[in-house]
Structure formats: structure tokens, C-alpha cells
Protein: Sulfur carrier protein ThiS
Organism: Pseudoalteromonas maricaloris
Amino acid sequence: MKVEFNGETININREQNIQEFIEARGAKPPFAVALNGTFVSRTEFPIVTLSDGDKIELLSPIQGG
């Protein structure tokens, strides 16, 4: 199954939920996730299962002044 993560195509060989997928990539909070352009709340990470062709965007806040 292929998904797109921050613009990069990634092959995953088993069904995963968003939490498993993000943790496997070593993401450190704080961050927000969009799946196919729609915000996904953190409470939904373990519930939402990825499908072939999904587009996942992980967005981290940028600090500055």
C-alpha cells in the first residue's frame, strides 16, 4: 500500500492507523496532522486507519519573533 507523507511516497506493508504511522516516523510533539486535507484530532489517531493513496501532512509549529 502506498501513502504520501509530507510529499514523499512511502510503501507500507500492513494496515496502520495514524498513530502507528506517525510514531514509526519518530515525530515528536507538538504537531498537527491532516489526512487528505482534513485535520485529524489527536484522539482520533488510534482510530483512523490509513488507506492506499492517502495523503498525510504532519505540521510542526515554527517559533520565531
